[in-house]
Each structure stands twice: as structure tokens, then as C-alpha cells.
Specification:
Blueprint lengths: L2 E4 L9 H10 L4 E7 L11 H10 L3 E7 L3 H10 L4 E5 L6 H10 L3 E6 L17 E5 L14 H15 L4 E5 L7 H7 L3 E4 L1 H4 L4 H19 L1
Parallel strand pairs: 1-8, 2-3, 3-4, 4-5, 5-6, 6-7, 7-8
This protein binds D-xylitol-5-phosphate and zinc ion.
Zinc ion binds next to strand 2.
């Protein structure tokens, strides 16, 4: 079954504890934490101290998406502050293999992220070592953007490669996921779907998660 990962970028930071409680109650397993440095992406979000305080108020797994140029310096700091999963952009890492192995040796699950325009085949050699692959379905930097549909072809391609190679990494998708397209997202083979504005922009975030999960299950059942 697909996991919905609420993205805290869209949360109300003045009511963060309450909003986390709402999605926890709805049964989510992960929170998605977007880190932006104003260089790799044209925006700045939050950093290590925010993650450290978040770690004190939730037992959910924290999935840290690094949209930064210097992942080698910061990944260990996020892991020490409590990150369970850390993903880095293929486009930002000069020594991707080394960075992924470093994340695992620091004790977190390692993921690699592709921007919409970066082909899946660029990951051929690292697929056997990653714990998950994150495909961006918007150009990173902002919440609330429109879903880019061709990314679903990349999901199908990645799923086929995983099957052919007998691998078991998870496939994550991030950007523009809503209750209206989550059915197609699940049907294409996504395991973890990140959702920011469609969860925290809704009047009841817990109910929004439940509705998305329901729509995803419906689409997959109809196909079966
Ligand atoms: C975008 C971030 C996303 C963002 C998704 O750069 O990586 O995680 O929070 O937000 P929505 O779901 O609003 O597109
Ligand atoms: Zn993200």
C-alpha cells in the first residue's frame, strides 16, 4: 500500500505540534522535511535545529530531502539530529556513490533524488546500493506547484529496472500530488508519495491523508 508523506514545508509552523498530531492520528509513518540552501534551489527553508526540535516531539520516521549543494557537510548533522532517511540530488553530488555510502554508514537510509528533467538511466550504477529513489514531479524549490505528468513514465521505467535487477529500493515521488492524481501515482508504482499543500492546506490534514490513501487504493484495486 502507498504511504503518504506529509511535507512540513506546507505546515503552519506556529501550530506544528498540533498538525503533526493530526497526521499521526491518520496513520502516517513518515514526515517529509525539505531542506533548501538558496543555491541549489532558489529558496531557503529550515535546517538542523528545527529537525532537532521536531525529533523531540514525534516518533514518526523523518525523511530529510536535501536540496543543497553541500550534502557531504550537512547530511551527518541531520542524521545526528534524528533523520531516519536522507536523500541527496544526483545533480548536486560530485561523488554520488561516496555520499550515499556515507549516509548509510552514519546510520540513515540513503536516497537519491532526480529532478524532472534528469533521466532515470543516470542512476544505473547506484541502484544496487540505494534504499530509495525520489523522483521529483515538480522543479524543486517551492510547494504548491503543478504536477508534471511525464514523471509517471519515469516511475514505470524505474519500477521495471528494479524488477529486472531483483532489487528492493522504495520509489518516492514529490511535488504536486493531490487527491485527484494520487490514483495515477499509485497505479504507476510509487511506494511513498509526498504531499505538502494538499495535506496541510486542507482544513483537516488527517482527513486529507485518509482521502488520498483511499483514492490511491481505489485506483490500484480497479486495475487488479
Ligand atoms: C518541493 C519540495 C516538496 C514540497 C511539495 O521542492 O521538495 O517536498 O513540499 O509540496 P507540494 O505537495 O505542495 O507540491
Ligand atoms: Zn521534498
Amino acid at each position: 500500500m502507498i504511504e503518504i508523506l506529509p511535507s512540513l514545508l506546507a505546515a503552519d509552523f506556529a501550530r506544528l505540534g498540533e498538525q503533526i498530531a493530526q497526521v499521526t492520528e491518520a496513520g502516517v509513518k513518515f514526515l517529509h522535511f525539505d531542506v533548501m540552501d538558496g543555491h541549489f534551489v532558489p529558496n531557503i527553508s529550515f535546517g538542523v535545529p528545527v529537525l532537532a526540535s521536531l525529533r523531540k516531539c514525534t516518533r514518526l520516521q523523518i525523511d530529510v530531502h536535501l536540496m543543497i549543494e553541500d550534502a557531504d557537510t550537512f547530511a551527518p548533522l541531520f542524521i545526528q539530529a534524528g533523520a531516519d532517511c536522507v536523500s541527496v540530488h544526483q545533480e548536486a553530488c560530485r561523488h554520488l556513490d561516496r555520499t550515499l555510502r556515507m549516509i548509510q554508514s552514519e546510520g540513515a537510509k540513503a536516497g537519491v533524488v532526480l529532478n524532472p528533467a534528469t533521466p532515470v538511466e543516470t542512476l544505473e550504477h547506484v541502484l544496487p546500493i540505494v534504499d530509495f529513489v525520489l523522483l521529483m514531479s515538480v522543479n524543486p524549490g517551492y510547494g504548491g506547484q503543478k504536477f508534471i505528468p511525464y514523471v509517471l513514465d519515469k516511475v514505470r521505467d524505474l519500477r521495471a529496472r528494479r524488477e529486472r535487477a531483483g532489487l528492493s529500493f522504495a520509489i518516492e515521488l514529490d511535488g504536486g500530488v493531490t487527491v485527484d492524481n494520487v490514483g495515477r501515482v499509485a497505479d504507476a508504482g510509487v511506494d511513498w508519495a509526498v504531499a505538502g499543500s494538499s495535506v496541510f492546506g486542507a482544513p483537516d490534514p488527517g482527513q486529507a491523508v485518509a482521502a488520498m490513501r483511499h483514492a490511491a487504493m481505489d485506483a490500484v484495486m480497479r486495475r487488479a
